[in-house]
Amino acid sequence: MWSRQAFRRFAIQLVFLAAAAAVVFYFYNNVAQGLRQLGLRFEYGFLRHTAGFAISEGIAYQPSDSYARAIWVGIVNTAKVTLVGIFFATLIGVLMGVARLSSNWLVRQLAAVYVEVFRNVPLLLQLLFWYSGVILKLPPVRQSVAWFDAVFLNQRGLYLPRVVAGESFAGWRWFWLAGLVAGAAVYVLVRLRLKRLDRPGFPSLWAVPVTLAVAAAGWLILPGRPLALDYPVMGRFNFTGGTHASPEFAAMLLGLSVYTGAFIAEVVRGGIQAVDKGQYEAAHALGLKGPLVMYLVVLPQALRAIVPPLTNQYLNLAKNSSLAVAIGYPELFNVGTTVMNQTGQTLPMFVLMVAVYLALSLLTSAFMNWYNRRMVLER
Amino acid sequence: MLSTPAAQAQDAASRTSRPAPRPESPFGSGLPLRRRLRAAWAWIRENLFSTWYNGILTVFTLGLLYLALKHGLRWVLLEARWAVIPANIQPLMVGTYPRAQLWRVWAVLATLALLSGLSAGAFGARLKRAAAWGAGIAAAFLLLPLSAVSRAMVLACAGLYGAGLLGARGRRALRPWLVGAWFLSFPWTLFLLWGVQGSQLLPRVETSWWGGLLLTLILAVVGICCSLPIGILLALGRRSSLPAISWCCTAFIEVVRGTPLVAVVFMAHLLVPLFLPDFRIDKVVRAMIGFTVFTSAYMAENVRGGLQSVPKGQYEAALALGMNSPLMMVLVILPQALRAVVPSIIGQFISLFKDTSLVAIIGLLDLLGVARSVIANPQWLGLQAEVFLFAGLIYWVLSYTLSRSSRRIEKALGVAGRR
How many domains does chain A have? Predict the structure, then answer.
């Protein structure tokens, strides 16, 4: 027989689960009833129906495609703005975090002002400000701001030249392959040599130039250009050619990276400050100089303090991309709400979106955990 | 700017690994002019031109700063059309709260001012600092383009604060009463603002009339107050040794934390009426539910951190005294754990305060929502930058002040920092 305590534990859990199930059932019942009155059922069949609404940007899609396709376009757009945003936010954050520790008083103060200003204003407000207060107030297409006839900025967004394959691109690929092989060989050799001499150093500093040199040689040897630039050209109503960032995308990117950059700056600053002073002194005492102290001693330790909170910031950025619904960038949440409005399938659509965001979160944190574990093992 | 530049520099220097000798402050008084100039020159060389690349950096930054200030100031002083702000100050502050009932908002502010004054006095804040805070907040209010009546009200509130401060000085006996009063001030505020159905004196003002900064603050305060108890329960549940309970709590926390806040608020807006068809729940309350659900998951993680910071010996000691589990939690563990999470609760409040702006998406007229509707008015076409900058300034002042004071509270409590 069970002891009295084990029975009590079992009973408590049973009661808890029963209560939770009752609440969930009550909610579900109400929703089901509400849906039935609207003539709907909780199911995902609607995903196959024709969407019938247009999406302003993203991968190939027509209004005659299915809802599933529309949602996929949203997911890809979310991934796009998130990845590009993470890149720029990290760039800004690292720069500003280091600037906050600069020995230059002016730089230090400006970095502090940047962090305190952008951290303490709601992101939604910043996005709206960039979008309707700045980008939409740029000059119209006819009076674009132009740099070297290659980059154009106007209220329809940013137009950039695009890199496209030239006539000898096929041959050039072989040079890249050869360069990569040579680079890998150099990497291994240098690394073995360093290990034998038991000296610190950077094999990549040798390997990367070798690869680039082979590729450059290919550029010179091959007849014609392997790569060409496709410039945006002013047509009758709009630019054609080149690549284009819509005002919505530009505002999202600007807002997300500037906002998250302020938080990342604090993370970076905290991480560098967490490295003990004795570590610098010990590194100097061992005869390490300049950048080697930073790369071999300080950074690995700082990164251990930086990576976990940095992961959180990346996840925040990914989730914050859903604010695009306010300025009309067609990412997952924006498309999702349109689908909800059209089909009335609020709950299934919500479950689907939460699942996607959860998967995104779990993937990112799995990757960052893997990276973090590697950093910790390497100490 | 942060504190004083010199203090900032010293602060940074003491924490960085390369200790820089602190130069003599050029602002020191009482020295002859020549020595002061020399000290200033030494400070500039030390801090702006210590190496050749620092020199280049300084010149380059100064150039950028000059350009930014030149264009920025020209826009702010000459080009921007600020008339839109005074014309819409009332909606920006209180939304569509009826004009005849505005005295209730002032009554709430007066209550809070009096309570703050009394607390500052009774809890032994230094007189100069407390007075400076009061004066600073009053000055910030007076800087807003308010009507003469409103300005008089601000001064009256400042007077109440001062009277409370002086009246309660050194009266330690007031402390427990004040704690109770603070707890009661929350329902009292809601009661005053909401009123009673059919009353002459306090007619009901439906929440759909609330708006502006008032709504923003109420959403944030309600969100934090409601999510704290739920968060504590979830944290205890997550640490429970009963697998069913700990699993359910963990799943709830992780799912909510993985979902964007917009989605939660949006869903509270759409799904709550579906979940509870028998009740009529208006938009503002639905938003409150959304924020509470969202914040309680984060609050649970904060509280869990606090629970983990309580030494094991405290549990053992409580058990040795013969306490049972609930008693131990309430009397021994939670008081210590909650003390450790005060800074992160304030941090949570700051981010919630900023996040309440999301209700603008579901069409509520909080500070940002009013700003958007002002811009949509054809009379004020094309003034996005002005209106958003003003709203941003209000958000910034409040959340910056809060984060500064949270650092002070951290120091006073002697616990680790926010984030």
Answer: 3
Residues belonging to chain B: 419
User: What ipTM describes this predicted complex?
Assistant: 0.84
- Residues A223 and A168: beta-carbon distance below 8 Å: yes
How far from chain centre, in Å, is Cα B340?
Answer: 19
pTM: 0.84
Cα–Cα distance for residue pair B368/A323, rounded to 1 Å: 14
Enclosing domain of residue A107? 67-137+247-377
Determine, for residues A125 and B263 on separate chains, whether the beta-carbon distance falls below 8 Å.
Answer: no
Question: CA torsion A3→A6→A8→A14, rounded to 10°?
Answer: -140
**How many helices (DSSP H) and strands (DSSP E) are in chain B?**
18, 0
pLDDT band at B18 (very low <50, low <70, confident <90, very high): very low
CA distance, residue A360 to nearest chain B CA (Å): 9
> Could you tell me if A254 and A355 lie in one domain?
yes
pLDDT at B2 (0 to 100):
36
CB atoms A129 and B392 under 8 Å: yes
Q: Which of A364, A335, A178, A152 is nearest to A245 (CA)?
A: A152
Domains, chain B, in order of start with CATH, read: 24-79 (no CATH), 98-203 (no CATH), 205-419 (1.10.3720.10)
Contacts of A16 in chain B (CB under 8 A): 242, 244-245, 248
Per-residue model confidence as pLDDT tens digits over A59-108: 888 888 889 999 999 999 999 999 999 999 999 999 999 899 888 889 99
Q: Are A364 and A316 in contact (CB under 8 A)?
A: no
Q: Does A176 share its domain with A85?
A: no
